[in-house]
Amino acid sequence: MTDIQKTDPAEASARAAALIESLPWLRRFREQIVVIKYGGNAMVSDELQEAFAEDIAYLRYVGVLPVVVHGGGPQISSMLGRLAIPSEFRGGYRVTSPEAMSVVRMVLTGQVNPQLVGKINAHGPLGAGLSGEDAGLFGGRRRGVMIDGAEVDLGLVGDVVQVDPTGVLDHLAAGRVPVVSSIAPDLDHPGQSLNVNADAAAAALAVALGAAKLVILTDVPGLYRDWPNRDSLVSHIDATELRAMLPSLESGMIPKMTACLEAVEGGVETAAIIDGRVPHSVLVEIFTEHGIGTEVAAR
């Protein structure tokens, strides 16, 4: 005789309840663009990489239109170390020399991007790799950073000041998931490229695409109103309050929260930072009532 495993009724009900909870959010985000910035520990843990790829495939199969923008900070730092190239951060941004820029391009376009595309494609022919240098997707200009009232030069680091989303929209129309690396051609110096903060790049792309939501994966549970008080985690915040808080935030959090602010002020309905160390945090944020991190709205 063959043993037949029966589903526990309570377990089955719990699973059904979880699916039903997602119903209004499936209806809300179906055929809507959601831009997801992939980074942090989720990029270096095999388990979290697999979970993220599953989340992206799930979104696409249920009718959401995910667009992934990635950096590669841990991998870039590792490669710079192996090549004995100094790695320095100022105000939350990586100082990027011409020598370091070559490594940034090599790691983002040649390592991180195809690896992520491959993991997504393990679930079907979905992922399509792109660089911000492709077909005029991004255009950038160099920037510095203000530290203690003085502007500090960051080298080949820039802001995305121009976006042509045509290539991304073409991939979405073909049923694919665009996976975009955060490099931008320097509009003022043809032939030169800039290392662009992936949070800012994701925000600029979300605005250009008219996305319904921006989600930024990070290495903390969310924004704290009074760090390091763990009880001060903020679930929801509006743009006005966030702008007032920005100067008091830790340097590493400022680019992420600035990206959320720029997204919602540019017309994206909501933006969120979530803990990428939690498996399937993307699905929890999008398809549950309370989400998992800090959500920013225009008001």
Structure description:
With 299 residues, the chain is an alpha/beta fold. Helices cover 39% and strands 27% of the residues. It has 10 helices and 16 strands. The strands form 4 sheets. The protein has an 8-stranded mixed beta sheet with strand order 5-8-2-1-11-15-16-14, sandwiched between helices. A 4-stranded mixed beta sheet has the order 6-7-10-9, with helices on one face. Helix 3 packs across helix 5 and helix 4 (73-82) packs across helix 5. The protein is globular, with a radius of gyration of 20 Å. The protein starts with 8 loop residues before the first helix and ends with a strand. The relative contact order is 0.15. The mean pLDDT is 92.
Features:
globular; about 300 residues; about 25% strand; alpha/beta; 8-stranded mixed sheet; 4-stranded mixed sheet
Fold blueprint:
Layout: H1 9-21, H2 23-29, E1 33-38, H3 46-61, E2 65-70, H4 73-82, E3 88-90, E4 93-95, H5 98-121, E5 127-131, E6 138-147, E7 150-163, H6 166-173, E8 177-181, E9 183-185, E10 193-196, H7 198-209, E11 213-218, E12 223-224, E13 233-234, E14 236-238, H8 239-245, H9 254-265, E15 270-275, H10 281-287, E16 294-297
Helix pairs in contact: 3-5, 4-5, 7-9
| Low-pLDDT stretches | none
Helix/strand order, N-terminal first = HHEHEHEEHEEEHEEEHEEEEHHEHE
Beta fraction of the residues? 25-35%
What share of the residues lie within helices? Answer: 25-40%
Shape: globular
E-strand count: 16
Distance between the termini: 63 Å
State Rg. 20 Å
Give the integer mean of the pLDDT values: 92
- Count the helices. How many? 10
